[in-house]
Amino acid sequence: MTIRPPLTPLAESLPSTVPFVGPETQERAAGRPFRARLGANENGFGPSPKAIEAMENAAHHVWKYGDPESSDLRAALAQEHGVKPENIVVGEGIDGLLGLIARLYIEPGTPVVTSLGGYPTFNYHVVGFGGRLVPVPYSGDHENLEGLRDAAFAEKAPLVYFANPDNPMGTWWEADEVQRFIESLPETSMLILDEAYGETAPASALPRFEPDRPNVLRMRTFSKAYALAGMRCGYAIGEAQTIRAFDKIRNHFGMPGITQAASLAALQDKAYFQETLKKISASRERIAAIAAANGLASVPSATNFVAVDCGGKAIAEAVMQGLLDRDVFVRKPATPGLDRCIRVSVGPENEMDVFEQAFAEALAAAHNQR
């Protein structure tokens, strides 16, 4: 019998799982690459040429650790959002920052309020630190603000997670509704307002920043609109003392200089950014048109993906599998009520062409199987 050092009881109790199975894993299993990569909500239109140039220049300096304060990037972000650098912490994507938040606020048994069917990586971190998830069902295709608030009070929850715009449905709440939600929460509940898709949303969906409010953390990323998912750069905006708490536990050398340089250059290239937003909007419209041409509705989206309503769980699963069989990578929600949809990321025209043909074929095959 092999003897090995024991894991903690918490680690031993956790399932061996990950929030998502990566497309590369699926490609290896199939023995061939995807023809259209439309399942990870990446930005296939690519980053700013200035960001690429910045990466090329920074590559000569990768022998150095990156600035542990991300000073230049934080200063630029502060100017962008009308806050101070001390209101911003930069980390390894929103996912990395969510892990730090869980570590700061969660002990075994801590109740954490979130939406049933919302972003699973947050749940992954909560469970990984021994927290107790308090899931609130969606109201239609929207996260239920009233339900989240009521659960926060009932559970005396120190953490409440809410994404606006939402993943996986792409829906959003207007800023005045979000602000009322913020003001209705207990002062002892920290709201994690995940705005990963904030740049692709209408301006009317984003409330003004309140850098002195101590119980809100606003999350942003360079992975979506700025097309730098592989650089792993996200940031949180909050009250200065709250932001300083991250310094107690963060990986101070976790943000490479090449990532900082690319993110700063992408942020400064306003013209390219605006062109990308137009491409994202046009691609959303095309996905919706493809769905309509095949007799299906889609959920209005403020993100870089569209949820296509296939009419039921079984047909959605068959369509998704049919697309995967045709080398088109998409995903779908698993939660009842949301699982009638597949989720299709925006992408370049050539990948949309592939999707258009494969979707019609997969949908027809799914109906023929019934």
Protein described:
It is a single chain. With 370 residues, the protein is α/β, with parallel strands linked by helices. The termini are far apart. The protein is built from 13 helices and 12 strands. The longest helix is centred in the last third of the chain and has 24 residues, at 270-293. Helix content is 41%, strand content 14%. It has a 7-stranded mixed beta sheet with strand order 2-8-7-6-5-3-4, sandwiched between helices. Strands 9-10-12 form a 3-stranded antiparallel beta sheet. Helix 6 (120-128) links the parallel strand 3 (111-115) and strand 4 (132-136). The model has no long low-confidence stretch (mean pLDDT 97).
Beta strand count? 12
- Please bin the fraction of helical residues: 40-55%
Shape: globular
Integer average pLDDT: 97
The assigned structural class equals alpha/beta
Order of helices and strands: HHEHHEHEHEHEHEEEHHHEEHEEH
Number of helices: 13
Computed over alpha carbons, the radius of gyration is 21 Å
Q: Calculate the terminal CA-CA distance, rounded to whole Å.
A: 50 Å
**Uncertain regions: pLDDT < 50 for 5+ in a row?**
none
Percent of residues in beta strands: 5-15%
The largest β sheet comes out as: 7 strands, mixed
Strand order, largest beta sheet: 2-8-7-6-5-3-4
In short:
With 370 residues, the chain is α/β, with parallel strands linked by helices. It is built from 13 helices and 12 strands.
Write the SSE topology.
Blueprint: H1 9-13, H2 23-30, E1 36-37, H3 49-58, H4 71-81, E2 88-91, H5 93-105, E3 111-115, H6 120-128, E4 132-136, H7 145-155, E5 159-163, H8 175-184, E6 190-194, E7 216-221, E8 234-237, H9 240-245, H10 257-268, H11 270-293, E9 297-299, E10 305-309, H12 313-325, E11 328-329, E12 341-345, H13 349-369
Parallel strand pairs: 1-11, 3-4, 3-5, 5-6, 6-7
Antiparallel strand pairs: 2-8, 7-8, 9-10, 10-12
Helix pairs in contact: 3-10, 4-10, 5-6, 11-13, 12-13
